[in-house]
Amino acid sequence: MHFTAETSSNGVIERDFTVGDVPGVLWSPAPGADRAPLVLMAHSGGQHKRAPGIVGRAQRFITGCGFHVAAIDAPGHGDRPRTPVDEQHIAVLRQAQAAGKPLGPVAAGIHLELAARAVPEWRATLDALQELPEIGAEGPVGFWGIMQGTGIGVPLVAAEPRIGAAVFGCLGQESLAEAAARITVPVEFVLQWDDEHIDRRSGLALFDAFASKEKTLHANAGGHRELPRFEADSATRFFARHLIA
Amino acid sequence: MHFTAETSSNGVIERDFTVGDVPGVLWSPAPGADRAPLVLMAHSGGQHKRAPGIVGRAQRFITGCGFHVAAIDAPGHGDRPRTPVDEQHIAVLRQAQAAGKPLGPVAAGIHLELAARAVPEWRATLDALQELPEIGAEGPVGFWGIMQGTGIGVPLVAAEPRIGAAVFGCLGQESLAEAAARITVPVEFVLQWDDEHIDRRSGLALFDAFASKEKTLHANAGGHRELPRFEADSATRFFARHLIA
């Protein structure tokens, strides 16, 4: 892990890093604090590690709970080069968009391909982050990611026993059901009740598939981009319940 | 409205009252506070106005938000005499219980009959409460009630324009869909994902039926009696968002 830049504002330290050729950012509470839990955040499709929905929630997790928060660019996203496969993903999505089709079914295959690359990257990133003394190998780890972040996150959390609680949502693909059935940690799952891209039944089926004894579905009226702001507070409380001893 | 008893503890004043022959209890923050919003709470079947689930949440609404909270006994419940119809309800429920049947479908008809009596009682109670100077006729009013409280509450909130926000749940009867479709105020709806008495599809259909632009479903893993405690905090925040200007 190489740190390439460091800034600090409002009591939050922001460090750019790379693990291999994957660029990421680590936000931490002011130095001198005790070891604190870590939340991994995966951005949505077409976005990047500093998307507003990531930065805003990271700020809440840090100031509200004193957590460390790490985000990396997904393959073909943000500061990363695009492979021919990535270019093909974009073309397929644009075509569906131009045809006015719901993007959920189209994205399912893309997410599977992305997850095959991204899951090992996330695990290597977590290895590196846990070597930092302010995080450590024994501390609690959470995962947050909706839409594409769920497409990558469900296989990641299924494969990664170090992650102890996860917020997912705004997605519902049958292709994720098998991985979801291997997840037993507490899950908070957000869904937009009138999502124009995600079939309601498919979203409910994904929630149903998690094997977690503690799981909560938050379904809100509104379309794909109308997730209410109070769900960010709810995610903060969810991680506070499960990551703080 | 006649007050019949008053006690006070932990900064909460508790006053027993009657409106006509309906007994109720009004919990209020310590005197001298400004006018405050009012939350009406309807208990579940077989319970009464001082059931633990009512008293515990009332305490949170008062200490967390400074609200007034009022609960009344439903017809045939608590301190009220039972009519032959009430006795028949109990017999029907006991029979279904003995046969190991889910109680949701059986309760639907009972709730309809109860609501026909209880809705006018609630409206008269609200009239009386709003004459108190510490509540007033213009202040915000919320409604909380799950199970039988939803069976009575959905027709009440549909009929009562003074109620501006409602928490319902743990019920899902097609018999309520028409009233739910007339409700447009913000709704938080809790559902137990593995409820042995309430069919999941029927619960989701009731949530779907509300015409409210802002509505949130909280579905939690677990059976009928396993509603997580954090939903009481969520209801408190819901009322804080909608009843405090």
What can you tell me about this protein's structure?
The structure is a homodimer of 245-residue chains. Chain A contains seven helices and nine strands. With 245 residues, chain A is of the alpha/beta class. Chain A has a single domain, classed as Rossmann fold, CATH 3.40.50. In chain A, a hairpin with a 2-residue loop joins strand 1 (2-9) and strand 2 (12-19). In chain A, helix 1 packs across helix 7 and helix 2 (84-98) runs antiparallel to helix 3. The longest helix of chain A has 28 residues, at 103-130. At the A-B interface, helix 6, strand 9 and helix 7 of A face helix 6, strand 9 and helix 7 of B.
Please provide a brief summary of the model:
Two copies of one chain form a homodimer. Chain A is α/β, with parallel strands linked by helices.
What's the mean pLDDT score of chain A? 96
Number of strands of chain A: 9
The CATH homology group name of chain A = Alpha/Beta hydrolase fold, catalytic domain
Strand content of chain A: 15-25%
Integer tally of domains of chain A: 1
Alpha plus pi helix count of chain A: 7
User: What is the CATH topology descriptor of chain A?
Assistant: Rossmann fold
In terms of quaternary structure, what is this? homodimer
Structural class of chain A, by secondary structure, is alpha/beta
Largest interface: A-B, 20 and 20 residues
- H and E string of chain A: EEEEHEHHEHEHEHEH
Q: Helicity level of chain A, as a percent range?
A: 25-40%
In the CATH scheme, the class of chain A would be: Alpha Beta
Largest sheet of chain A: 9 strands, mixed
